[in-house]
Amino acid sequence: MASKKKSESPQTADSETLKSLLHSMLLQRRFEEKVGEAYALGKIGGFCHLYIGQEAVSTGTLSMLREDDYVITTYRDHGQAIARGMTPRSVMAELFGRIDGCSRGKGGSMHLFDRNLNFLGGHGIVGGHVPLAAGVGFAIKYRGGDQVIICFMGESVVNTGAFHEALNMAALWKLPCVFVIENNKYGMGTAVERAAAIKDLSTRAASYDGMYAEHVDGQDVMAVRDATSRALTHARKGQPVLLEVRTYRYMGHSMSDAVSGTYRTKAELDEYLKRDPINLFRAKLLESGDLSEEQFAAMEQEIKAIVQDSWDFADASPEPPAESLYEDVLVTTES
Amino acid sequence: MAVITYREALNQALREEMARDDRVFLMGEEVAQYNGAYKVSKGLLDEFGEMRVVDTPITELGFAGVGVGAAMVGLRPVIEFMTWNFAVLALDQVVNSAAKMLYMSGGQYPVPIVFRGPNGAALQLSAQHSQAFESWLAHIPGLKVVTPGTPYDAKGLLKAAIRDDNPVIVLEGEMLYNTKGEVPEDDYIVPIGKADLKREGDHCSIITSGKMVLVAMNAADQLAKEGIRVDVVDLRTVRPMDVEAITASVRKTNRAVVLEEGWEIAGIGAQVVDYIQRECFDDLDAPVVRVHQADVPMPYAKGLERAAKPDLAKTIAAVKKVMYVD
Prior knowledge:
The complex is a heterodimer of chains A (335) and B (326). Chain A is of the alpha/beta class and 335 residues long. Helices cover 40% and strands 12% of the residues of chain A. Chain A has helices at residues 15-40, 55-62, 78-84, 88-95, 130-143, 161-172, 221-236, 266-273, 277-288, 293-316, and strands at residues 70-74, 119-123, 149-154, 177-183, 186-187, 190-191, 212-217, 241-246. Residues 1-8 of chain A have low confidence and may be disordered. A seven-stranded mixed beta sheet of chain B has the order 3-2-4-5-7-6-12, with helices on both faces. In chain B, strands 9-11-10-13-14 form a five-stranded mixed beta sheet, with helices on both faces. Chain B has a two-stranded antiparallel ribbon with strand order 1-8. Chain B is an alpha/beta fold and 326 residues long. Chains A and B meet through strand 2, helix 5 and helix 6 of A and helix 3, helix 4 and helix 5 of B.
């Protein structure tokens, strides 16, 4: 995660920063491949939505954020959790439903939270978390702070009432919110053009005076950083932003769904696989000389060990104790 | 002690808690410039300014969520619904966000928020504006639900709700706003989860809450003239429910009527009766009788509306039934 002092200019990224971006994306990818394996073995249950293919969005945006900024997202939250700096151990243990998980085994895949990182959770009702983001923006303004909140959402959210209600208030009250639409083209199995009566999703912002909007290639991490930089500049001044990031989901909607089939063709998937954000960025760094093949191989090895360690840690972590069933329903202290 | 209205009592509670804690703010439709649809927030905009008394667009789902988000990062919102009938649009935020956040975050994110507004029927507002939501909300773990029936309880419970670190639902009554009662001027709270024995008697218990407390008190007055002494247990909080107060009363009287404003099926009364059969099975001298709204959407016509609502006559009849008189 970027430190508070770090420059927000994506253009001045040095070799180390560039490699850290690749590292962040590759860690998410390898972590989730391991998650898929664990799911197949029954180590992980319930709904489990993989982020594979969208890693340039989480890394590109969150690498620009300060420590005291806020993040909120949907149920497809593993990638952003890791990009924000949550440890693979705490995320994997949560997926395994263990006590050392970030939400003590109460939330699972869809509800990753980390208060220390201002990671306000993965939320399971499509559109439901967007008003929460406006509320965090309201609290920032109430206190006179200069933080922002980034609110991630899938493209299907733009058709919900909650989205409109939240964006209207964010614009009306000039709240420091960056609403990031991760347009991966499908709301479960329904293509965006079959669900939204609008082609260019960022133009939804035209409904709200003063809202800044743009769209960006979500497979290009540097382009995402660039757009995020502009978005943050606006948001820190109290101008909310709608940023559409065009990306693609390489896996099924959740682990229970087919990767392709009735709703999208294998040929379409293959076409998008040619623009894998990690492959594109790796090639770019190899070409520019910011990365060598040896360094990349070493990075792969290191990440492989981190991911295996997260599995071992999660597997060894105890189940939540029976008495925890009734804990955390209510806070017992009063202020 | 000063005699003030239920409306003024709520206004005092808001004013005192906002003065006490600058994290507390009030948000809702017409709460600021208009001084509140029912004038509960009268004068607060002038006193606390527009950052702390916030008019919203008509977007219950949206501003309920704004409140939850603000509470997650340390503010203490009071969200006013113009009526709970409109809050049905916001239930996703109340049920899925506010009530579950602490649990699904493994204890990391408490949501210290109050959702409040008038609940239940007024007069001839017909089906969509005349619903009592106690049982809907009391069903949800992670919420507390209070139902003040007097000015004293309204002020004390709202103050307790604002100071509570959990989501608290405050169900007020449109027909209660003008009712008067004694309210102390000094700082006090009414503890959430504690019932109040509003009237003592040893023949029959009436267990009730909210607006129906007045009906129960009137029934007790009428019945006293016939020599029937009624215990009136005002639950004040319907989640968590004061089971001890219910059982103590029923063990004394051996007979109970459960009076509520809402519908019968899966209503609050069903829960009260369950506690009674579990805890007081051997104490009962008669089956418990419930008084509630007729199992229909609220009609508009005066006569039909009267027939649909729980009232004094139905309550008296119920007490006589469990007393085996008439």
